[in-house]
Amino acid sequence: MSEITAEQVAHLANLARIDLSSAEIDRLTVELGQIVDSVARVAEVATPDVPATSHPMPLTNVFRDDVVVPSLTVDQALSGAPDRAGDKFRVPAILDEE
Amino acid sequence: MTSLINQTAAALAGLLADGSVSSVDVTRAHLDHIDAVEPDVHAFLHVARDAALATAARVDARRAAGEKLGPLAGVPIAIKDVLATHDMPTTSGSKILQGWIPPYDATVVRRIRDADLIPLGKTNMDEFAMGSSTEHSAYGPTHNPWDLDRIPGGSGGGSAAAVAAFEAPLALGSDTGGSIRQPAAVTGSVGVKPTYGGVSRYGAIALASSLDQVGPVTRTVLDAALLHDVIGGHDPLDSTSLTDAWPSMAAAAQAGLADGALKGVRIGVIKELNGAGFQAGVKQRFEETLALLSAAGAIVSEVSAPNFEYAVSAYYLILPAEASSNLARFDSVRFGIRVNPEDGPLTSERVMAATRDAGFGDEVKRRIILGTYALSAGYYDAYYGSAQKVRTLIQRDFAAAFDKVDLLVSPTAPTTAFKFGEKTEDPMAMYLNDITTIPANLAGIPGMSLPMGLAPEDGLPVGLQVMAPARADARLYTFGAAVEQLLEAHWGHTLLSQAPALANIEMFATEGGAV
């Protein structure tokens, strides 16, 4: 059995930058425990001699020619932003303190 | 009387090419039908009525001027909302992207525009393609045209329902663990997940990058092949795109219609995808289809894929891990909504966390947290690392099977369409529903679902899944077209012709006679 605690889920939520309510954390703690118990079976057959596959059709060194091609204009790139200042994304304070 | 909306895309293409109908007529017929059935079905998140009619008029004018157009020019198409469209909102079924209009088109969208297809609108889906029922759409579920109280499958339930309800002859879907094939199965339509890398994902909002693939959603195998030919092929904007020269899938499908196309074809029945937990009527139709195949000269044998029992577990580690990374881009800065926390200082970090709490639904949060856990220091080897090893074992199972047979078959889904709410409270039950479709994504091989009948116990569609080795997509189309022809000859009709009339259409039929 996995032992997933509410504190652990709260920590994961913080890492994932999701401001979960305590009710959501409680529910996820139970669900996550059940899911992890189920999926942990992969360890049964994942022996050291089996190589890992990260990508189903392995390709290496996919390059393009080093030439300038058209890309989004500044206005296009900013068109979906919730807030902008001139040609830049406007964001809330980066640091916690003044 | 057969109306324009009942035609296949291939038939419409013929009528358009010989001038029997205009694209404006065809497009308007579909838009009118969308208006009539959408209150019941809710396959669309956005319908681009004016733009579709304007595009259709331009295609008609160019055809009238004698311009040589592509085979599907003037045929309408629905687009899954996971694909970026520069002129329509693109939400991926999520609140966090509500109203977002991307500054560019996905490559597949650009290709259908270049081929002069007519985009009708954007179809509903589980949020960020996480789900098997569309119940996780932030904009409400899509209803199965066969029974409005049931799910249309997912995540691409909108695209499948749109073609099954005759709202569009063609649609685009995406398949990460079955999101094209399972909705096809439960709606009685056809869906194809191409070989990984066979179709560009540029502009497809990423769920799990090592699994996602874009593909066709249609009512016939030939239509899927025609659409595959439009969207497939190398795209330098997608670094996972294969540089292969692909054969014509439409020619491959046509080849399947020839006499004796099934003779000597070696078919493997996957033992592990035909056992406990499969609905009786699903198994019955599957056995009957195998008998028909044998009678048509195919050589049917059983093959074993012992590691498939670990596929769902591996998938639900790999997918959340990749999804948690991909969805980090929703940071309340570059696109999507921004929500400020109710109290406390307004820092970027806190605004991001409040936005993601408000913008993501339960299933998305569940998978991001699960993925974050699976990638955590100390757990990585046990979970993500082990899952990647299972992936190797599943590829080896496929390789061993394809040493013996040309194609593999199984039911596409263990059951017919289930009722709304039946599995939403039990995430693992929902996840296990994907047991049949997930192995193909883990291995990168192509898979197709086509209808193989109605389950006797509930009268709902059952899908046949066919899988081929990587890069052998054409083989799927040849075989799929042959099986489709065999089954329809056996039934004496298409499967979708048996779907119950939707309420509004019934009223219309009573008033106006034949539709």
UniProtKB/TrEMBL annotation, chain A:
SUPFAM superfamilies: Glu-tRNAGln amidotransferase C subunit (SSF141000)
Record InterPro entries: Asp/Glu-ADT_sf_sub_c, GatC
GO molecular function: asparaginyl-tRNA synthase (glutamine-hydrolyzing) activity; ATP binding; glutaminyl-tRNA synthase (glutamine-hydrolyzing) activity; transferase activity
GO biological process: glutaminyl-tRNAGln biosynthesis via transamidation; regulation of translational fidelity; translation
Keywords: ATP-binding, Ligase, Nucleotide-binding, Protein biosynthesis, Transferase
Top-level taxon in the UniProt lineage: Bacteria
Pfam families: GatC
Record has Metal-binding as a keyword: no
EC number: 6.3.5.-
Catalytic reactions on record: L-glutamyl-tRNA(Gln) + L-glutamine + ATP + H2O = L-glutaminyl-tRNA(Gln) + L-glutamate + ADP + phosphate + H(+); L-aspartyl-tRNA(Asn) + L-glutamine + ATP + H2O = L-asparaginyl-tRNA(Asn) + L-glutamate + ADP + phosphate + 2 H(+)
Function: Allows the formation of correctly charged Asn-tRNA(Asn) or Gln-tRNA(Gln) through the transamidation of misacylated Asp-tRNA(Asn) or Glu-tRNA(Gln) in organisms which lack either or both of asparaginyl-tRNA or glutaminyl-tRNA synthetases. The reaction takes place in the presence of glutamine and ATP through an activated phospho-Asp-tRNA(Asn) or phospho-Glu-tRNA(Gln).
Subunit and interaction comment: Heterotrimer of A, B and C subunits.
Family as reported in the entry's similarity comment: Belongs to the GatC family.
PANTHER family for this protein: GLUTAMYL-TRNA(GLN) AMIDOTRANSFERASE SUBUNIT C, MITOCHONDRIAL
Name of this chain's protein: Aspartyl/glutamyl-tRNA(Asn/Gln) amidotransferase subunit C
Lineage: Bacteria, Bacillati, Actinomycetota, Actinomycetes, Micrococcales
From TrEMBL, chain B:
Entry keyword set: ATP-binding, Ligase, Nucleotide-binding, Protein biosynthesis, Transferase
Limits of the Amidase domain: 25-476
Active site: 80 (charge relay system), 155 (charge relay system), 179 (acyl-ester intermediate)
Catalytic activity: L-glutamyl-tRNA(Gln) + L-glutamine + ATP + H2O = L-glutaminyl-tRNA(Gln) + L-glutamate + ADP + phosphate + H(+)
Tagged with keyword Oxidoreductase: no
The EC number(s) this enzyme carries: 6.3.5.7
Pfam family, any one: Amidase
NCBIfam families the UniProt entry points to: gatA
GO CC annotations on file: glutamyl-tRNA(Gln) amidotransferase complex
Naturally occurring in which organism (per UniProt): Cryobacterium zongtaii
Keyword Protein biosynthesis: yes
Assembly and interaction partners: Heterotrimer of A, B and C subunits.
Family (UniProt): Belongs to the amidase family. GatA subfamily.
Molecular function in Gene Ontology: ATP binding; glutaminyl-tRNA synthase (glutamine-hydrolyzing) activity; transferase activity
InterPro entries in UniProt: Amidase, Amidase_CS, Amidase_dom, AS_sf, GatA
Protein role: Allows the formation of correctly charged Gln-tRNA(Gln) through the transamidation of misacylated Glu-tRNA(Gln) in organisms which lack glutaminyl-tRNA synthetase. The reaction takes place in the presence of glutamine and ATP through an activated gamma-phospho-Glu-tRNA(Gln).
GO biological process: translation
Enzyme class: ligase
Name used for this protein in its record: Glutamyl-tRNA(Gln) amidotransferase subunit A
